[in-house]
Please model this.
Amino acid sequence: MTDPVKDVQKKIRFSLRMHKKFFGVVFATVAITMLWRGLWNILDLYLLPGHPLLSNIVTIVLGIFLLYLPDEDLKDIV
Model:
């Protein structure tokens, strides 16, 4: 026969682990979004501010180049 107290303790520990994971994911999502927003605003201010189309093209090319650097293989990117 199982001990009901131990069953409840297991459920509570599982629940706390799930809450910890959930809030970790929420925290990471907020942090990444804030980082992305800040970088986006800096690029808008300083990278060719008078030429938005050219600025967008330059950032796309730089982004593709940065994704290409680690393994030098474009088939994963395209």
Summary: The radius of gyration is 23 Å. The chain has two domains: 1-46, 50-78. The chain has a mean pLDDT of 82. Residues 50-78 form one domain.
